[in-house]
Amino acid sequence: MANRNGKLSEEKVFKDPVHRYIHVRDKLIWDLIGTPEFQRLRRVRQLGTTYLTFHGAEHSRLNHSLGVYEIVRRMVDDVFKGRPEWNEEERLVSLCAALLHDLGHGPFSHSFEKVFHMDHEDFTRRIILEDTEVNRVLKTEGKDFPKKVAEVIAKTYSNKQVVSLISSQIDADRMDYLQRDAYYTGVSYGHFDMERILRVMRPREDQVVIKYSGMHAVEDYIMSRYQMYWQVYFHPVTRSAEVILTKILHRAKQLHEENYTFKQEPVHFYSLFNGEVILKDYLKMDESVILFYFQAWEEEEDPILSDLCSRFLHRNLFKYVEFNPSNEQMMKLLELKALFKKAGIDPEYYLVLDSSSDLPYDFYRPGEEEERLPIHLLMPNGEIRELSRQSEIVDAISGKRRTDHKLYFPLDLIEDLSVKRTAKKKIIELLNLHK
Amino acid sequence: MANRNGKLSEEKVFKDPVHRYIHVRDKLIWDLIGTPEFQRLRRVRQLGTTYLTFHGAEHSRLNHSLGVYEIVRRMVDDVFKGRPEWNEEERLVSLCAALLHDLGHGPFSHSFEKVFHMDHEDFTRRIILEDTEVNRVLKTEGKDFPKKVAEVIAKTYSNKQVVSLISSQIDADRMDYLQRDAYYTGVSYGHFDMERILRVMRPREDQVVIKYSGMHAVEDYIMSRYQMYWQVYFHPVTRSAEVILTKILHRAKQLHEENYTFKQEPVHFYSLFNGEVILKDYLKMDESVILFYFQAWEEEEDPILSDLCSRFLHRNLFKYVEFNPSNEQMMKLLELKALFKKAGIDPEYYLVLDSSSDLPYDFYRPGEEEERLPIHLLMPNGEIRELSRQSEIVDAISGKRRTDHKLYFPLDLIEDLSVKRTAKKKIIELLNLHK
Amino acid sequence: MANRNGKLSEEKVFKDPVHRYIHVRDKLIWDLIGTPEFQRLRRVRQLGTTYLTFHGAEHSRLNHSLGVYEIVRRMVDDVFKGRPEWNEEERLVSLCAALLHDLGHGPFSHSFEKVFHMDHEDFTRRIILEDTEVNRVLKTEGKDFPKKVAEVIAKTYSNKQVVSLISSQIDADRMDYLQRDAYYTGVSYGHFDMERILRVMRPREDQVVIKYSGMHAVEDYIMSRYQMYWQVYFHPVTRSAEVILTKILHRAKQLHEENYTFKQEPVHFYSLFNGEVILKDYLKMDESVILFYFQAWEEEEDPILSDLCSRFLHRNLFKYVEFNPSNEQMMKLLELKALFKKAGIDPEYYLVLDSSSDLPYDFYRPGEEEERLPIHLLMPNGEIRELSRQSEIVDAISGKRRTDHKLYFPLDLIEDLSVKRTAKKKIIELLNLHK
Amino acid sequence: MANRNGKLSEEKVFKDPVHRYIHVRDKLIWDLIGTPEFQRLRRVRQLGTTYLTFHGAEHSRLNHSLGVYEIVRRMVDDVFKGRPEWNEEERLVSLCAALLHDLGHGPFSHSFEKVFHMDHEDFTRRIILEDTEVNRVLKTEGKDFPKKVAEVIAKTYSNKQVVSLISSQIDADRMDYLQRDAYYTGVSYGHFDMERILRVMRPREDQVVIKYSGMHAVEDYIMSRYQMYWQVYFHPVTRSAEVILTKILHRAKQLHEENYTFKQEPVHFYSLFNGEVILKDYLKMDESVILFYFQAWEEEEDPILSDLCSRFLHRNLFKYVEFNPSNEQMMKLLELKALFKKAGIDPEYYLVLDSSSDLPYDFYRPGEEEERLPIHLLMPNGEIRELSRQSEIVDAISGKRRTDHKLYFPLDLIEDLSVKRTAKKKIIELLNLHK
Description:
Four copies of one chain form a homotetramer. By secondary structure, chain A is α+β, with helices and mostly antiparallel strands. Chain A has two domains: 7-233, Hypothetical protein af1432; 236-313, Growth Hormone, Chain: A (Up-down Bundle). In chain A, 51% of the residues lie in helices and 12% in strands. The first copy, chain A, contains 23 helices and nine strands. The first copy, chain A, has helices spanning 27-33, 36-39, 61-80, 91-100, 109-116, 120-129, 133-139, 145-154, 160-166, 172-185, 194-200, 215-233, 236-257, 270-274, 279-282, 287-297, 303-313, 327-342, 347-350, 387-390, 392-397, 411-415, 421-430; strands spanning 7-16, 20-26, 201-204, 207-211, 319-322, 352-358, 376-378, 384-386, 402-409. In chain A, strands 3-4-7-8 form a four-stranded mixed beta sheet. In chain A, a hairpin with a 3-residue loop joins strand 1 (7-16) and strand 2. Chain A is globular and about 75 Å long. The mean pLDDT of chain A is 92. The interface between C and D is large, with 42 and 42 residues. Chains A, B, C, D: It comes from Metabacillus mangrovi. Chains A, B, C, D: InterPro entries: dGTPase-like, HD/PDEase_dom, HD_assoc_2, HD_domain. Chains A, B, C, D: It holds the Pfam family HD_assoc_2. Chains A, B, C, D: This is HD domain-containing protein. Chains A, B, C, D: Residues 61-178 form the HD domain.
């Protein structure tokens, strides 16, 4: 099916709603798509619990991974090819890194990482380097090839230009997810002129720069990103589902530690609970498995586990109020916790403070935690300038972190507190719910 | 949250990529959406195995159900309201029937219905009428209300006009799924001017007719439907996945009947295997459960069950050739079956003839099986004419059934037949695979 | 600005709403776009009088010409390049012919050609071959180059493959105008998957064939074309404006022949009236000039010329009734003409029978007038089959001409016939206007 | 055709690419659309010279006016209707003001207003109040009705809520043109979620406020506006065409004042040249007339008039360099002017400094020139807050004016300066053109 230079005898295409078509010409890419590890991404949603807020957001990480691959393919095949600053030998490692960059994501991975103290990037690396089908396919390209791909994803690869294709403040990953998530949720944000941005990208020594003539398209992209974060990714209903999900995992772990006897024993979770996850087990984890357990656990006798699973499955989520973590408010929170306990509602699981925070764009702050490479413009005179020094709009939002705190709780349980009139009244008052 | 006339105090909206927004003003609708039975539809994909061909087609039946509801809502609130032929009292039953019409669908329901001889419409009826949350919510509208909703869906409701809103050759169901499936797959078919069609719909005695001025929009809709069937719904790669899925279910059932000892006992399937499904069990069935089992069964010792599950999960599907079921070809099929057996590949599971068939539009054929109500035009002079008598294009395709037969088989297994050279050669020849 | 091989030092792009961007890499193309003859197409609307029906349809022939060029560019640069059946030397002649194929169009050219018995194709040829800027630019490519371009447009070029790119039943011209006209009018017809069609086009000896896998996209294209003809191009309101326009030109010509003294002498029309158009004069003709005259003529003393111009400018168009040109109906028409005369309304200008006719697709009918090259499919086995033999839908409409006749008249004038009660009543009766 | 309450017996619709359909239910609106003064707007482009940069931008002011009407119709019929703060009696005056707000625009009106010191708003008022068809139609609604409509447009109407519908920082006018101009040019800016903004608009005493939940949609709208200004409206190629157009009008006026004998006497311009424009003459002015003259003037003997007309018609525009009006640079400009004169190129017409300036959003600055009403949010607690106090992004750009200066000149003429080597060299140096 492939000829000598690793090209398929006939180009394969996948129909894609965002990029129209995903084009595959390399046998290596085709074979990677066919591995069990890559196909597993069909069973992990790109946006976790977001589908409970935006019913259209049911798309998988496989869907997104193909998109990132296609964007990098256009960069290297349509824009960079033939330019002296671009090393054609980096083409295949770039394509593979783009395709595989999310390989290690588990089901609902943000919650998972938080509860089980793990890191999806670590699993991405392991899937690429250890004994997997992906590793076998990558090795057909050379013994060191898997290591190179893993390094690009880990941002430790020597050629920073290649790294920046999928990890920078304007990379293929972000360009795909903003558009794709906007498409599936149906929101009108998330659109920007990617075709223009691609056309004005230029490889330079350690990075990819943007020709000045494309600055407004980049501004638009940054604004899209900002809007998507606050309108979609941090949507309070999504956060509420996330809070419940996290609490389910906590509860199951706690019960396991307390030697609770499950009707549906959490065999898939044992290694996670114990903190020693072997790769083979990890690869069995996907959202079907999680939802299978949640459904089973809905019938456990532990009332908290059962209730939380039921809430998640049937979208009976927590309500929320804005919460400003000042001293005064934190005192109020303590008081609320006490009242919850008194009312028989375990505040550990039913009164949750959750924060979202985003930095829409940042210039370079060497030495600081979470260093972010800034976007650079290539000016008409050949000079390189950092974006926020040229764009007033970007300058206006650059480096400004916005944080939002909310307090989540089950309004229905509180309203049902018929026998605990005083506690109920006080809780409602503290949560400012009386109207 | 609702005032006296059953309206929510504030309209709720869901962002929808196809209809922009889904508007909910009635408390009854809001409560139905919140039932576990309706939320379960999030775990059943609208297009079954299609996501293995079109990676974008990961949307659920809940997604589609909201869309059908919204279309009927626009019909009754924006177009029919105030017209003398429309009975305003039918509004709520129409909306509920639209929202709930797919409630009984199981996971991958076409295969399920075929293997287990069941009928999703029967389950829809039971979920509405038996002891469920949906039934409880519906009864708040009146004791007989669930029965009325079930009758509309079953097409036995006395007011045929209401029935036709969701069950005719141009109903809200079809109008939603054509557009929605096109949107999620990304294909360029499936588009037609629904807004125009809605504007020219007029309630008449037993049906809804279309003003003549909208005829071309209807032609376009029928052509869209035709294209979607052959380009998406009958796509041979999707059919291949469907074939494998069906064979997995067959195999599990057979093993169960043969008292095979499963590592993962198919407890969720027992009642299906035995043909006596109780509703409570049925409602636990969804695609998470199926995929959970398939993953577990991949490690069963039965080589057929394990292989088929692996193929389905990792998209290692069967290949196909066109097959014309003439006597001569059927002889060839027998010969092939014998050769497969000889080569050690069970033809029962690995050589499958599959047919797709569609009738893009049909006029009225009283007495015939599968009677289909034709589309009627309201001519400028007030006359009612059947569509195909007025539209040359529709006439050209009216009543013409198109059928397609394909033979599916695992090309990789055949190519691996190194020790059975002769059988292999002969199989390849009969399947016309030599090139 | 251009380097040795005729390429611009930097690619130029035009933003285009239909194709996103129009890419220009050849200095020759850039220079042709800059000629006065090409820029003149900005002042000729692509759809003539259609903007009076669909207010969005104000786009010019320059707009469309760039689109046709871009489609051919994609064919030759992205699809054909490197294929053995494609002669790379034909690239530039193909691009030029695409860009210039509409160069000879006059203002509202259908009416013009009809009234003045001229042919825009003849003027296209003359602009390319005679003493113009376009000719000078083309000659930089070779002395014979203009002749080659003209031959491609005239369909007499020896390489029929090249001819078919812009003149066949699925050429770049049609693919652009269907999409572009749909975009500007805003109708939902006119969409088809051009990207797919381009991808499956294959150059063959005397034609371009379509791989079988693209058949459904071609079916969709043909249906789009059909819908656009009847929904947009033959829209009766557009036809009404066309009828009035034609009658204005007739009237002006007649007055000129009768030595009527115009306040605004029709100097720009003299050569048209006399039937001896010199190229220089023709190139001065555009829709600004026409509208300038119509505005001036609104104040002429001739009541017919003044009234018709006023109707056209202020969109006070004729109404219409369906008319079936049977003997009986033709008798009725005669009677109506007599009644119009009696009522003082000149039927020559105010009672107009107009017909529209279209053949959505035709197979090959050698020897017949208006021979049309059929679309050929390239079957998987290498065989070439005519489209209608493979596609049931295309077969159903193939070769079937549809014709529509309408009778146009000024309803307002008839309604104003207060002193001629009997004639008015009879006219209204014959036109079936009483209700 | 209309019944007693002024409604048409059947709703009329226009297909619109931006809003899908324009709905007309009121006979008054239908009649206004049919007036010669409104139809004249078909012959005035919405974006003046922009079509020379973005070939798709050929849409007329009629096109836009229908759009503004439709947005206001949706506001008053779909959002405001029934709300206590909205006075239903203002409905019709709002719709008429929306439809007619641009009525007084002349051809290429920015240049016109500048050269002839006139004001299109003044003409809008006169067309509504003086002896026109529009005035006659409006008076059918009441003797004072035209005055009310004119006052709304002039912002002097007593009900400021009504005024704000078409004149505020988030009015129907802006919402239409941003989307429409984006659609026709094809740029990817200009999109925002208008449907959401409409849904959250609430009439309040003197204004229309936006519910807080729609704040992000408003931010997106403001960013769209910002991008459209710098990417489309101030595009330097468009400005170049504008510069040439202005200079043509200047030259014609000057020649007229110098008693130059035109071959094509500028009769349509006399009253403009003399500064005493009568309405009847003004209404004859449109872009057909302008282009007719420019074509005629291309053959005038005055070399400047002829050259400039030729440049405009054939898009042979001026080039530009950035120019910062510091003292130093102004000295350089003087030097350049001298050099141009020496080289025989009149700097009055061929060396033009042009500035663009925009204020993307402004809060309220009472007493300052060009007072702009800020956008107000309706907070969940009922409080009203000015937008930039709530939105960080809007705050960042609020009140910040951005200005851009460019120097335009004919590069071709300078390059042709073969006999004036020294001047040429010096000019090229001063303009920084050597590379």
